[in-house]
Amino acid sequence: MTLLGLDLDYVACIVLFCVGLYMLVAKSNLIKKVLGLNVMETAVFAFIVTSGMIDGGQEPIVVAGSAPPYTSPIPHAMVLTGIVVAVSVTAVALALIAQIHAHYGTIEVDELKELP
Amino acid sequence: MTTLGPTLLPWLVALPLAGAALVPIVARRDARWAGGFTFAVALATTALASVLVAQLASQGPFSADLGGWAAPYGIELHFDRFAAWTMALAALFSFVIPFSWRYLDATLPRERWAPFYALMLLNLGGLLGFSVTGDLFNLFVTMEVVSLSSYALVAVAGRGVAAWAALKYLLLGAVSSLLVLFAVGLLFALTGSLNLADVSVRLAAAEPSGAALLALASLAVAFLVKAALFPLHVWLPDAHAIAPSPVSAVLSGLVVKVGIVGLLRVLQLAAGTGISLEPLNTVLMVLGATAIVMGAFLAIFQDDIKLMLAYSTISNIGYIVLGIGLASPFALIGAFVHVFNHALIKVTLFLAAGAIIHQTGYRTLSDLRGVARRMPQTAAAMAIGAVSIVGLPPTAGFVCKWYIALGAFEADQGGYGFALVFGALFIFVYYVRMLDAFFFRSPVRPEVADAVEAPWSMRAPVLVLAAACLVLGVLGGIPIGFVEPAVVDLLAALGR
Amino acid sequence: MDVVDPRPLLAPLLSFACAGLVFAAGENVFWRRFWTFLAAGAKLLVVLSMLPGTLAGTVYVSHVVTFTPGVSIALRADAYGMFFALVSSTLWVLTTIYAIGYMRGSKDRARFFGFFALCVSTTVGIAFAENLLTFFLFYETLTICTYPLVVHAETPQALRAGRIYLTYTLLGGGFALIGSVMTLDLAGTLTLSQHGVFASDTPTLALAAVFVALVLGFGVKAAIMPLHGWLPIAMVAPTPVSALLHAVAVVKVGAFGVTRVIYNVFGAEQLQALGFATPLALLAGFTILAGSVLAIRQDHLKRRLAYSTISQLSYIVLGAALLTPLGALAAIMHVANQAFAKITMFFVAGAIVKETGKTHVSELAGIATRLPWSMAAFTVAALSFVGLPLFAGFTTKWYLALGALQGDAWWFVVVMLASSFLNAAYWFPILHLAYFRAPEVTPETPPQATPDASDGSHAGVAAGGPRRWETSKTLLVPILICAAYVVLLGVTAEVPGMPTSVAVVAVEQSFGLEAPLP
User: Fold this and answer.
1) Who has greater pLDDT, A24 or B429?
2) What is the spatial distance between Cα A92 and Cα A103, in angstroms, rounded to a whole number?
3) What is the pLDDT of residues C280-339, one digit of tens each?
4) Of B25, B257, B374, C505, which is least packed with CB atoms within 10 Å of its CB?
5) Closest CA to B194 of B144, B143, B146, B140
6) What's the rounded Cα separation, in Å, for the pair B458 and C438?
7) What is the 8-class DSSP label of residue B111?
């Protein structure tokens, strides 16, 4: 299935990415911003995994009786590493938000901007 | 001898990363040991890098395949002149670390010393990995190592304002990283390879497609955010000004260069794909010239010396990007050389500013009046750095300005030559204010009037770096000679 | 004939090294003076040692370091460079003596003498620059090193003057850089050792851009109108700085640069064909007259001197822009003639301030009875500027007029005559006041805060009584030597072995024109 010449899977990824971007840009709450970032990350991960898929492809574990086509394993490996990175980024972000909250008592960007 | 280079290459990255892991253990008994240990690791890494550069000089570029898997399937580390030039960047760590010893006394509680040093080494390892990796995905991973450690380093001083600056930096940085990851995934989907050289070849073999263009454009934009090119610079000033001075030095001098090195990688990738680089180059020239002027313009209104220095980074990134956009041999040489020279100058300036702030407790021009009377050597280093960053001879900054201006005329873009030369002078407007305040006004603060010179562990790195700024101004031919073959290769790949 | 020799490098290097030691000596008076004199003396000796060779037509070259392929940092002592280096080295020794007397007791003397030494060192570097890059390196270094001297007093006016100075000169430097870069792009070389580097088929428009950029760049320091605004304002600097830098070193560097552009970057022949020199000559002629007119209106003595400098500098530019052998000879000789005469005047102006605190022309009534020797020297310099025979200024005007006639530009002779009258109009009133008017009865304004108590040259200063009748020896000796030079330069114009003969060699060798004198 395609939409505008793209596979529907990819279209879903793009929509998800835009949702995340909207959250990141438009929300004032820092936690929501980080959540938006996470949604964007998920969109990219989904995109990469999808790109490795082949119609009718098997899992790429070569045992007796298995035969091509295989789905590509490398995108999975990449995404796995990507998730690790994303979790680290989220962890650092949350730690920073916690510090901001402890210091200013707020995590709303509007209010933070008004502080001296 | 022949196999020494490939054998040692992985250790170049492993050494600082392993050092980072060991720092907390070393610091268990006494946090002060962490500083010495980190210095030792940084020195060892620099020594290792020198051996590799010597190898490169004697027998040309070499590669190492991690885990015994040959390229393009395995992960390849590649050491060429391009990578070797960024080794010079890493060598600056050997100056920043000893400076930090005494600096941390006043700025960080002792339990944070070990994390600080560990993060510094992580940052170094990431930078080295980024410059030697021949693998697209590793480009992303090492970039994230650099970025994450940078976010944490900005916040290391631990006050709310630092955390807020770090978070702003993180949010934009994470989005740009995500763009890189997306582009890497897309390029893999298009070519089935992650090896940089291989991807380039396969892209060239395939039909030029919108998807390839999208991938390369995403990479370019992402790296320009990392490089803080105006108008993608908004995260930079706060983060760089609020971080402790050694961190500012590393961030402003070195970490933004990740974006530049990445951008050059994009150019390498795009070479031969049939995708026209003209639009990209035009954008780079316009944005570069704008950045030079706007960075200077924004800096004029700052009273905080570290904010001033942070804005001047934006200007200087403008130089480099302009040079890359002009894409003529001389301009590229100038841009390459400025990658290091700017780092050298900026580290000098930030460390000197750090020493002054450490000794007086003040950081604005109006408070720091007359500080040169009490801290003549540090202030002199600051003056040399200021003259250098404006690109006045005989300093390191002039060499780059000369080359990029020459490149502008070579590319028949004389207008950009004017923008560069006079934009740079515009920068001097605020450095003159700084020098006036430091040297020719009377102290208004008792702390400044009674300040003493910084301790030697802080002063020595600053003075050596300042001297290097002068030496590289006169011996400008040496770095030029070193990067020239790399530029020739790049231009050959780009088909010019 | 070019000979590889370390001496052109040695001259600036020695004084750079000594400048560093001056800084290191700090407030230690003995060592500071020791290193300053060593630097000045050693440099003068090195330059003098090359003089016989220069007169015989030898050019000494030292190659320092390759900056980029095809462009090196290199020094080359040709006759014109030697002439300029000799003037600046000689005057440095004299100014150093004067400055020690003048600056006695003032603050931050290490900084003052250190940057002073740096400035003079760069002047020699400029004189010997083999190519535009080397020239530019030293040119900008000079700009930076002069700045601390201009703002030395650290008053708001001084800081403002410093900023204006930097704005003008750095913008000029920017144009010089652009011009150099364009030259390299068009000609593939930056050398100043040839008489023109551009191929004859280079587009005229591009050449015009180069000419304008380079002349703008160097013209700022030469204070060609309308680029002169910084010079009168920079007079807030201490007098030795005004004397050496703003009458000789800095401004002459600009004029020197313009002549190098005319004869070595473009070459007389090509420039004649292009016709770029005529507008420059007109501008210089205008500056000569306008500078003099403005000078008449100044009551502040140093400002009057500054406007006179602006006017006099354009003699050099005009002489060079005439593109005739005699005009070129006049330009070269005026480098020395104006320098010695103007520095004499500045020294006297400084002595007057130091002794009486008087800074304005209108206060100078009867000053000759107070400072007879100084005013005698001042008179010599003034007569030289007016252009009386037997004084240095006459030779310039004579050759300049002959040069103008050689080039069929008779109207410059008119300019020259008018300028002589104007010079008379602003120097003679000073002399009249000084010699023929009784001193005002009002008590002298006490001189600067610290009296020269340590100076043993004056005898019997009774409390409340008149001070000594002259100024201290350290001020007077340089004044008299400079005045003697003015006469010497005037009477020996055609004696072989004297400065003129270096200038004659320079016209042939450095400018590529035919011999101006038999």
Assistant:
1) A24
2) 17
3) 888 888 888 888 888 888 888 888 888 888 888 888 888 888 888 888 888 888 888 888
4) B25
5) B140
6) 64
7) G
**For residue C246, what pLDDT band results from cuts at 50, 70 and 90?**
confident
- Residue B338 · residue B354 · CB < 8 Å: no
Q: Is the pLDDT of residue C151 over 50?
A: yes
Sign of CA dihedral C269, C275, C280, C285: positive
- C-alpha C106/C-alpha C22 separation (Å) is 16
- Residue in chain B closest to A76 (alpha carbons) equals B185
Task: Calculate the alpha carbon distances from B254 to B131, C115, C146, C435 in Å.
Answer: 12, 34, 34, 69
Is A66 within 8 Å of chain B by CB?
Answer: no
Structure token pair of residue B485 = 């073959």
pLDDT above 80: residue A21 = yes
Given CB atoms, is A13 within the 8 Å cutoff of chain B?
A: no
Residues of chain A neighbouring B158 (CB-CB closer than 8 A): 99
> Is 90 exceeded by the pLDDT of residue B347?
yes
pLDDT in tens, B394-405: 888 888 888 888
The predicted structure's pLDDT at residue C518: 56
Contacts of B428 in chain C (CB under 8 A): 166, 170
- Helices then strands, counting H and E runs in chain A, come out as 4, 2
Strand order through the sheet with C59-68 = C2-4, C59-68, C71-77
> In 3-state terms, what secondary structure has residue A108?
strand
Give the helix/strand (H/E) hosting A35.
helix A30-51
Q: How far apart are CA C417 and CA B301, in angstroms?
A: 52
Q: Say how far apart CA B51 and CA B54 lie, in whole Å.
A: 5
Q: How far apart are CA C264 and CA C132, in angstroms?
A: 10
> Looking at the partner chain, which of B144, B186, B189 has a beta carbon nearest the beta carbon of A85?
B144
Are B110 and B33 within 8 A, CB to CB? no
Q: Give the number of other Cβ atoms within 10 Å of residue C106's Cβ.
A: 14
Q: Structural domains in chain A?
A: 2-114 (1.10.287.3510)
Residue C56 confidence (pLDDT):
79
Per-residue pLDDT, C496: 67
Q: Residue B192: which region, alpha, beta or left (left: phi > 0; alpha: psi -120 to 50)? A: left
B300, B337 in Cβ contact below 8 A?
Answer: no
**Residue C21 CB neighbours (<10 A):** 17
pLDDT tens figures, B202-256: 888 877 778 888 888 899 999 999 888 888 888 888 888 888 889 999 998 888 9
Give contacts of B150 with chain A, Cβ < 8 Å. none
Of chain B residues 268-287, which have a CB less than 8 A from chain C? none
B305 and B431 in contact (C-beta within 8 Å)? no
- The torsion angles phi and psi of C30, rounded to 5 degrees, stand at -60, -55
The interface pTM score, or ipTM, of the predicted complex is 0.91
CA distance from start to end of chain C: 21
Cβ-Cβ contacts under 8 Å, B409 against chain C:
181-182, 185
Lowest model confidence (mean pLDDT) among B165-174, B176-185, C46-55, C453-462: C453-462
User: Measuring CA to CA, which residue among B277, B283, B315, B284 is closest to residue B299?
Assistant: B315
Question: How far apart are alpha carbons B217 and C23 in whole angstroms?
Answer: 54
Burial of C465 (0-12, 13-18, 19+ CB in 10 A): exposed
Neighbours of B190 (CB within 10 A): 18
Which chains have 3 or more CB–CB distances shorter than 8 Å to chain B? Answer: A, C
